Amino acid sequence: MAGEPQDDCLFCKIVAGQIPATIVRETDTTVAFRDINPQAPTHVLVIPKAHHKDAAALAAAAPEVAADLLREAQAVADQDQLESHRIVFNTGSGAGQTVWHAHAHVLGGRGLHWPPG
Ligand code: AMP
Ligand code: ZN
């Protein structure tokens, strides 16, 4: 069921503390941790504690938590004192989504080209 922890979900396991992660922020509804394969000096993933398969599903089921995610993404940028940053939601395998639990990538600390690849 949407929102319930999924046994086979890596990020649900991070939320449950069953897999270690470098957690940089936590709220009642979200967790932020450093990406294991960073693509920039700051590369943090902000996820809802509840399981939703992607950002659109999260926004449809729990819009207030989608807003929490954006607020926390900005808080990560502030915490790492980023001058500029990019927030990315890869949605669908063709766009590079590999983990089917909604997550915002917060990238910064280097120049970021536009358009992205
Ligand atoms: P995406 O490809 O947009 O679904 O993003 C998934 C991200 O999760 C990738 O950037 C991975 O490097 C990252 N990732 C995978 N496993 C872990 C882990 N155990 N801890 C932190 N980040 C992870
Ligand atoms: Zn999950």
Overview of the molecule:
The chain is of the alpha+beta class and 117 residues long. The protein has a single domain, classed as HIT-like (HIT family, subunit A). 26% of the residues lie in helices and 21% in strands. A five-stranded antiparallel beta sheet has the order 1-2-3-5-4, covered by helices on one side. The longest helix is centred in the middle third of the chain and has 17 residues. The mean pLDDT is 97. The site of zinc ion (ZN) has 6 residues, from helix 1.
List the helices and strands and how they pair.
Layout: H1 10-15, E1 23-26, E2 30-34, E3 42-48, H2 55-61, H3 63-79, E4 85-88, E5 104-108
Antiparallel strand pairs: 1-2, 2-3, 3-5, 4-5
Bound molecules: adenosine monophosphate and zinc ion (ZN).
Summarize the structure.
Helix content is 26%, strand content 21%.
Which structural traits does this protein have?
117 residues, HIT family, subunit A, 5-stranded antiparallel sheet, binds zinc ion, binds adenosine monophosphate, 26% helix
- In what order do the strands lie side by side in the largest sheet? 1-2-3-5-4
Number of beta-strand segments:
5
As for the CATH topology, it is HIT family, subunit A
What is the 3D shape?
globular
CATH architecture: 2-Layer Sandwich
The CATH superfamily bears the name HIT-like
Q: SSE order in H/E notation?
A: HEEEHHEE
Question: How many strands, what sense, and barrel or not for the largest sheet?
Answer: 5 strands, antiparallel
How many separate domains make up the residues?
Answer: 1
Supply Rg: 13 Å
**Count the helices. How many?**
3
Distinct ligands: adenosine monophosphate, zinc ion
In the CATH hierarchy, what is the class? Alpha Beta
Strand fraction? 15-25%
Q: Whole-number average pLDDT?
A: 97
Low-confidence stretches: none
Structural class computed from helices and strand pairing: alpha+beta
Cα end-to-end separation: 34 Å
